[in-house]
Amino acid sequence: MPNEHLQAAAKHRLTALFGGTFDPIHYGHLKPVTAMAQEVGLQNVTLLPNHVPPHRPQPEANAQQRLTMVELAIAGNPLFSVDERELHRTTPSYTIDTLIEVRQERGTAAPLAFIIGQDSLLTLHKWHRWEEILHYCHLLVCARPGYSDRLDTPELQNWLEQHRVYDAAQLSQRPHGCIYLADTPLLAISATDIRQRRHQGISCDDLLPRAVQRYIELQGLYR
Q1: Are 88 and 51 in contact (CB under 8 A)?
Q2: Where are the domains of the chain?
Q3: N or C: which terminus of the chain has fewer CB atoms within 10 Å of its end residue's CB?
């Protein structure tokens, strides 16, 4: 039946996860990921706000505020959805734990990717159980201004070259195991800069969606 074919096709369509503290979410998150989706043929990107990020200081905005900002930022955009699971954890948000959970839910055959920035690729070897990540997903890497395109050691660089693919079509043909370095726009926007601007009373126009900016103002965040 045609409906069964559609369901089978959807099951094997590449989807992606994109985690972050999102304190606050901004165009430096949204625009490169949108470009990534167009480049590799993604129809859905699931945003995963972290609760307790293990590698950085704790967020200024609380979990509910950061979730609300994400929801406001993606409202009406069919590319994005949000997954709250990490916000309900009281333990650090380790990517590997989330990937194992999502893989169990979606099955072993579905192509699944995890989106990171070039800065995260350079420090991936410091992540919890980082060697296992490609057992569960592909890595899609957004370019970031000012970061090297080579890893720290010959061993790490060799690992990258072993898993790197240059044809995005391969990402849909395998469930996991590939690394794709995308040609996404370089946007020098960071949540740290936005928070500092807010602390100093400097405008953040054009750095984040207006709905998010209004919410930040209403909540009195980052002052």
Answers
A1: yes
A2: 15-188
A3: N
In three-state form (DSSP H/G/I as H, E/B as E, the rest C), the secondary structure along 130-142 is HHHHHHCCEEEEE
Question: What superfamily would CATH give domain 15-188?
Answer: HUPs (3.40.50.620)
Residues 103-155 have pLDDT tens digits of: 999 999 999 999 999 999 999 999 999 999 999 999 999 988 778 888 999 99
Beta strand 45-49 with 15-20 is parallel
Tell me which DSSP letter residue 212 carries.
Answer: H
**Phi and psi dihedrals of 158, rounded to 5?**
-65, -40
How would DSSP label each residue in 20-67? E--TT--HHHHHHHHHHHHHHT-S-EEEEE-SS-TTSPPPSS-HHHHH
Q: Which residues contact 6 (CB under 8 A, 6 or more apart)?
A: none
pLDDT digits (tens, 9 = 90+) for 39-94: 999 999 999 999 876 667 788 999 999 999 999 999 999 999 999 999 998 888 78
